[in-house]
Design brief:
The complex is a heterodimer. Chain A is α/β, with parallel strands linked by helices. Chain A is 48% helix and 15% strand. Chain A is built from 16 helices and 11 strands. In chain A, the strands form 2 sheets. In chain A, strands 4, 5, 6, 7, 8, 10 and 11 form a 7-stranded mixed sheet that branches. Chain A has a 4-stranded mixed sheet with strand order 2-1-3-9. In chain A, α6 crosses α7. Helix content of chain B is 81%, strand content 0%. The chains are: A alpha/beta, B mainly alpha. Chains A and B meet through α1, β2, α8 and α9 of A and α11 of B.
Chain lengths: 333, 287
């Protein structure tokens, strides 16, 4: 009996693996929360292109969740061939465990971020609290909805955007930035675990006066839930959020999907991929596509994480690690 | 005279308390059970019948239904076998560590489902105890169907056993001993005496076990990896659709789960109504 049980498990595993392999090529893309609509379009376009070029049909399976949680799942064995996450630190975590090559961010153009987004405000119709810029968020009586930076990638971008704004004000310095962000989190009634959860809190449950969100998430919420209900406010200065992508080398090698996986992430940079990104409210990198969608993405002063914070590893250690600045604010409790 | 008066005046507050209690119970029932249930169906059919049918006909929904049924079909029979064996051991034998076994059977009730799921990740995940060995041998448990089945078995483990133990304890073993004395084999005794005696409790256990197996969210969410169309059960599909602003779709799948629960309830009530006397006869413990 003792020998029989592992045998049974092995048989079940083999049968399962065989049924998966029988379907031509299958890729698993582990992504973060707000990209569901984007990758639905990307996947069908890429599958059509791959079929036309190679004759093979490729099925792309999706797994969505908070960016940090998804990275953790891949570490724990989620067999993702490709990761498309909210911030570089989460892919760094995979590189630290040898699942992704160390130089992953240099293998693809633009820091491996094929599209970008900005951090903006979503307010209720008519902007009843008159919110125009970051300073308005800390006025008395204003309630702000933003997710928890400990679990949500989007929330970390929000945090850094607020910090960078305060830093860039005349006479701005670290102490003033900390004071501003501390005040800001006092105005947050609930810290959701993910960006989509925060959007639902703001839009569906009607909590708060302003949602700090990815621009793509704000535009999508507006389209899905009604243009007559919400308005987007672009602050005077904000962070340029660069969500990165990478092939998970260890998994792609194991599954023999390297070629398709490489083609898949490169497709994101193609004219067609850029067009789809723009249609799904992500700011495209390609200038010509960006020009066509200019009305959708109002110009604003943006700064990148590298300009203000060095890189994601440094930002993570300084702000979001155990006992770091976010914990010192006492907002997480 | 004064005594009678007191008894009559004492009756009124008591009746008042009766009515108040009934109203309170009713209010709770409406607020916490009927209202949410009605909301599920109202939201599911908000845009009419066609969008509802379309929502549950999508391949992702069909695969979620199939996976949910598959998990239940594996988990429930295994827990029936385990439940009977455990109840038998607990009520027919004296052995060291019996209390400990009882406590272990209850463990899944007292542990948070998320923790149960996490334990399997720690055991079978790529960084877990057995992860590297299983990876080397091409065995996938976490983020695959076997992990969903394991987590569900763990969560639903106590249902059958807990239903059987009090009954079998109350019934005692006289009838079984009589069967053995009269020359019945072990299996004959089990199928002709034990099983008929416990069948109603067993059926309750199976119904409860099945309802939980299909409805479990926390534990399966941790081990699922949320791969659409591959490792998402119905409760996970509901969450996913809700997060995708597909409210009709979310509530449509939720309504199927609710229907399942209602069906379970209906079967249970029907059995109680139809075979009430028989059930009472077999449950000397007032079960």
């Amino acid at each position: 009996m003792r020998k029989f049980i592992p045998f049974l498990i092995a048989v079940a595993g083999t049968v399962l693996a065989a049924t998966v392999m029988a379907k031509d090529v299958t890729l698993l893309n582990a992504s973060y929360d707000p990209t569901r609509e984007l990758y639905r379009d990307i996947n069908s376009a890429f599958a059509a292109q791959w079929k036309a070029q190679h004759g093979d049909s490729v099925t792309i399976q999706m797994s969505h969740g908070g960016s940090g949680k998804q990275a953790r799942s891949v570490v724990d064995g989620l067999p993702a061939d490709v990761v498309t996450l909210a911030l570089a630190y989460d892919i760094d975590a995979l590189a630290d465990r040898g699942l992704v090559a160390r130089d992953w961010q240099k293998r693809l153009p633009e820091n491996a971020s094929p599209y970008t987004s900005a951090i903006v405000f979503l307010v209720r119709k008519g902007n009843p609290k008159g919110i125009k810029d970051w300073a308005d968020l800390v006025r008395p009586g204003v309630q702000v909805v933003t997710p928890n930076p400990k679990s949500s990638g989007g929330a970390r971008w929000n945090f850094l955007a607020a910090w960078g704004y305060a830093l860039k004000q005349p006479g701005g310095n670290e102490a003033k930035a900390k004071a501003y962000v501390q005040e800001l989190y006092k105005h947050v009634p609930v810290l959701d675990t993910g960006a989509r959860g925060a959007t639902n809190t703001f839009a569906q449950r009607g909590i708060g006066d302003v949602l700090i969100a990815w621009e793509n998430e704000a535009l999508l919420a507006q389209r899905q839930l009604g243009k007559d209900k919400f308005e987007i406010v672009v602050p005077s200065v904000t962070i340029l959020a660069e969500p990165p992508v990478s092939v998970v080398d260890a998994n792609a090698e194991k599954h023999g999907t390297r070629a398709v996986a490489d083609a898949y992430v490169q497709f994101l940079y193609s004219p067609q991929g850029q067009e789809i990104a723009a249609k799904n409210y992500y700011r495209p990198r390609a200038q010509d596509v960006a020009a066509r969608y200019a009305s959708q993405f109002p110009a604003t002063h943006t700064f990148t994480i590298n300009e203000v914070f060095g890189d994601w590893r440094q930002a993570q250690a300084k702000f979001f690690a155990e006992g770091a600045i976010f914990d010192q604010l006492g907002a997480g409790n | 005279m004064s005594g009678r008066k007191r008894s009559r005046s004492a009756r009124w507050p008591r009746r008042l308390a009766h009515v108040a209690l009934i109203l309170l119970a009713l209010a709770f029932l409406v607020a916490f059970l009927l209202l949410p249930l009605a909301t599920v169906f109202a939201e599911a059919f908000r845009e009419g019948l066609t969008p509802y049918l379309e929502a549950i006909r999508q391949p992702e929904a069909r695969s979620a239904i199939r996976l949910t049924l598959l998990v239940a079909v594996i988990a429930v029979p295994l827990n029936v076998v385990f439940g009977i064996a455990a109840a038998w051991a607990m009520t027919r034998f004296e052995f060291r560590g019996k209390t400990l076994l009882g406590a272990f059977i209850d463990l899944p009730f007292s542990v948070s489902p998320v923790i149960s799921g996490l334990v399997y990740v720690l055991l079978f995940g790529a960084q877990g105890w057995f992860g590297p060995w299983m990876e080397a041998h091409g065995i996938k448990v976490i983020y695959a169907v076997p992990g969903l089945v394991l987590a569900t078995i763990f969560i639903t483990l106590p249902f059958v056993a807990r239903e059987l133990i009090p009954l079998m304890e109350a019934q005692g073993s006289e009838e079984e001993e009589a069967a053995r004395v009269l020359g019945a084999s072990g299996w004959q005794m089990f199928f002709r005496v034990t099983l008929p005696n416990i069948r109603w409790a067993l059926l309750y256990g199976v119904l409860l076990c099945n309802a939980r197996a299909m409805g479990e969210f926390g534990a399966v969410s941790v081990v699922s990896g949320h791969i659409r169309g591959l490792t998402t059960t119905m409760p996970l599909e509901v969450e996913m659709r809700y997060n995708e602003y597909d409210y009709v779709g979310a509530f449509a799948v939720a309504s199927l789960l609710a229907l399942l629960a209602l069906l379970t309830l209906a079967v249970k009530t029907l059995l109680e109504w139809r075979y009430g006397d028989e059930i009472a006869a077999h449950a000397p413990g007032g079960h």
